[in-house]
Amino acid sequence: MSGPNPVVRARAVVKRFGAKTAVGGVDLDVAPAERVGLLGPNGAGKTTTLLMLLGVVTPDSGSIDLVGHRLPRHRTKALARVGFVAGYLPLPENLKVREALTIFAGFYGIRRPQPVIDAAIDRFGIAHLADQQSRELSSGQRTLVSIVKSTLHRPDLLVLDEPTASLDPDVAGRVRTTMLEIHRETGAALLVTSHNMREVETLCERVVILSQGTVAADGTPSEVAAAFDTDDLEGAFLEVAFRARHAGADDRLGDASGEHEGFHR
Amino acid sequence: MSLVRLRAIVQRHWIVLRRAPHRWFEISFWPVMDVLLWGSLGAFVAQENESSRAGAPYLLAGMVMFWTFTQAQFAIALGVNEETWTRNILNVLTTPVREIEYVVGIAVFGLLKLAACLATLTITTIVFFGFDLSDVGWGVIPIVMLLVINGWALAMLTVGMVLRFGQSAEILIWGFNYALMAFSGVFFPSEYLPDLLAKVAGVLPTTLAFKALRALLDGNPLPWGTLGWSLVGSVIALLLTTSFAAWLLRMFRRRGFVTRYS
């Protein structure tokens, strides 16, 4: 499942927000050049897990090594080799695309950014966007520029949180193609969250399904589908969501009757 | 500390400033309006009688130096807020930029803005009131430095509050600034504040800095003792507020407050 030096190695990671356990002891490895989909119903803990893997949110317990560096102590070294794209995240306003890329290249420590940016603009075919204000971009253009921004430093790991959410199928397809090309050309591992199961099947060779903050399944898309006795990944996802919903209802019933633990048994 | 990253932070805020005309108000419009208002008040008081003559330079120099403090504070406080306003915090936090690099970067950029602001205000006071603060001499430089340190200290306090309480705490950036103006004896000796407030004001490092400024304006030598105590207080304030902001940053990461801005 994972090589000897995984780009992500998380062990027993726990995160609680007040009384709610968002992530309840997740183990996750991502091998170099591996394409992994992190799936789960809304509220399953995907984004919290990603934010902990990126060192943005501190886990309550557990350990995380990112591209060989222990977090949070070596966050800077680790993030120099990681790129992050989120479909919901805008680029900074008031900056033209080229300016935003220049600044993020600086953030990634690239000393002479312009040749790198020129090459990336050519490579992704976004020359027509270079002098546009970031706020004028469409959702698809913004996602594309975010991918460019996050790959200027040729990361070993590209983390994508719902990269194609709110994109039309055509643009989403091009974004997926771009991600696969980056993966093929640079050998970067991909860690992707998405609610689009077909997308995950296209992009990822392995999927990890989270449910209620724990790993409910881990394997190739076909293995995961088989584990839930369904035809495809979407079926498995729906089964996980169904069980989570019922477990949640059970919890609420148990809480109400004061028989929380006994109810499950 | 990476110079490449520092340069990128300065560049980011330079572009924001260049692109947004309303941001120039902080450097030019508001400070100039304050100087015109308080300078005119000083001129009016000065022509009333001979003993009030000192009032005009007190008001003018006080206002120029208060804007020195304010520029240093705004540089960091509004610099961090820029990332919350543009929902860019998560973008920044997922790059190798260290928090300390970010603060140093915006502080450095703030010094450039401060230089522009001081140049504007010096020209304004010379042209409209015939008052040149540089006539006071080199003694004004350590006072500027003390006020810059205090501006940074207050900024770290408000940055911490914004990290903890979100954008609703932004008002404190202006609120604390105004409170410091009231309690620091910017225009007059702090002993003239109501008794209880005067006791509090008397120990503020900003009060001691403005006291040293008035000594210079009165033609006295620089009161190194007062400046020394101000420096001690300023450094303690900066250490305390930076520790406070660092503590709240750890809380920000622990409680996942970043999702407020993404």
Summarize the structure.
The complex is a heterodimer of chains A (265) and B (262). Chain A has 265 residues and is an alpha/beta fold. Chain A has a single domain, classed as P-loop containing nucleotide triphosphate hydrolases (Rossmann fold, 3-Layer(aba) Sandwich), CATH 3.40.50.
Task: Summarize this structure as a short list of keywords or feature phrases.
heterodimer, A: 265 residues, alpha/beta, Rossmann fold, six-stranded mixed β-sheet, four-stranded antiparallel β-sheet, 10 helices, 42% helix, 23% strand, disordered C terminus, B: 262 residues, mainly alpha, globular
Can you walk me through this structure?
- The complex is a heterodimer of chains A (265) and B (262).
- Chain A has 265 residues and is α/β, with parallel strands linked by helices.
- Chain A has one domain (8-254): P-loop containing nucleotide triphosphate hydrolases (Rossmann fold), CATH 3.40.50.300.
- Chain A is 42% helix and 23% strand.
- Chain A has ten helices and ten strands.
- Chain A has helices at 46-53, 75-79, 97-107, 113-124, 139-151, 169-186, 197-203, 221-227, 233-257, 260-264, and strands at residues 8-17, 20-30, 35-39, 61-66, 69-70, 82-86, 157-161, 189-193, 206-211, 214-219.
- In chain A, the strands form two sheets. Chain A has a six-stranded mixed β-sheet with strand order 6-7-8-3-9-10, sandwiched between helices. In chain A, strands 2-1-4-5 form a four-stranded antiparallel β-sheet.
- In chain A, β4 and β5 (69-70) form a beta hairpin.
- In chain A, α3 packs parallel to α5 (139-151), α5 (139-151) runs parallel beside α6 and α8 (221-227) crosses α9 (233-257).
- Chain A is globular and about 50 Å long.
- Chain A starts with 7 loop residues before the first strand and ends with a helix.
- The model of chain A is unreliable at 254-265 (pLDDT under 50).
- Chain B is an all-alpha fold and 262 residues long.
- Chain B has one domain (3-261).
- Helices cover 77% and strands 0% of the residues of chain B.
- Chain B has ten helices and no strands.
- Chain B has helices spanning 3-19, 24-48, 55-85, 89-93, 99-129, 140-165, 171-183, 195-202, 205-217, 224-255.
- In chain B, α6 runs antiparallel to α9.
- Chain B is globular and about 60 Å long.
- The chains are: A alpha/beta (265), B mainly alpha (262).
- At the A-B interface, α1, α2, β6 and α3 of A face α1, α4 and α10 of B.
